[in-house]
Amino acid sequence: MTNSPLTQQLQDRFGRQVAARLAAGAAELPYDVTERLRAARVQAVARRKPEAVFAGAVSVSGGAASLSFGDQGIGLWGRIASALPLVALVAGLVLIHTIQNDNRASEVAEVDAALLTDDLPPAAYADPGFVQFLKSGRD
After folding, report:
1. In whole angstroms, what is the distance from residue 84 CA to residue 72 CA?
2. How confident is the model over 30-67, as pLDDT tens digits?
3. Which of 97, 100, 101 has its CA nearest to residue 89?
4. Residues with Cβ < 8 Å from 80, sequence gap 6 or more?
5. In sequence order, what are the residues at sequence separation of 6 or more whose Cβ sits closer than 8 angstroms to the Cβ of residue 37?
6. What is the CA radius of gyration of the chain?
7. pLDDT of residue 72
8. Phi, psi of 58 (to 5 degrees)
9. End-to-end CA distance of the chain
10. What are the sequence ranges of the domains in the chain?
11. pTM of the prediction?
């Protein structure tokens, strides 16, 4: 059940109506019954659990601020808004990974094309310095 302002107003109005009827009927009760009811009411109020109150607040410590979400907590839209940066981060990482793979593939294809189109003798491929030449690139 949600704690919307309309629901809270309806609950408050119902409580006031019940209290008014009980107060009207209490005038007709004998003194000893009203005293027992009063004592029971005092005990019930004393045993009542304190209601947790959440207040929206900004706390600043060490140059960093944090925001709490008040008594309603974080709702559905708040959860979605909290998840959006994570989704954007994952999408960015996937995009970077894809671009890096494409770049590596194009670099390998470029080296292969250069090897296949150059006029190199077959002995050049067996030369140990040839690997160093490929790693350093042609400047």
Report:
1. 21
2. 888 888 888 998 898 888 877 766 655 555 666 666 66
3. 97
4. none
5. 26, 29
6. 38
7. 62
8. -110, 125
9. 72
10. 74-139
11. 0.37
Structure-token pair, residue 99: 């671009």
* Residue 128 in tokens: 């140990």
Rounded Cα distance between 37 and 22, Å, is 11
Q: Look at the block and give the residue holding tokens 């970077």.
A: 96
Tokens standing for residue 52: 């947790």
3-state secondary structure the chain: CCCCHHHHHHHHHHHHHHHHHHHHHHCCCCHHHHHHHHHHHHHHHHHCCCCCCCCCCEEEECCEEEECCCCCCCCHHHHHHHHHHHHHHHHHHHHHHHHHHHHHHHHHHHHHHHHHHCCCCHHHHHCHHHHHHHHHCCC
Residue with tokens 């981060």: 89
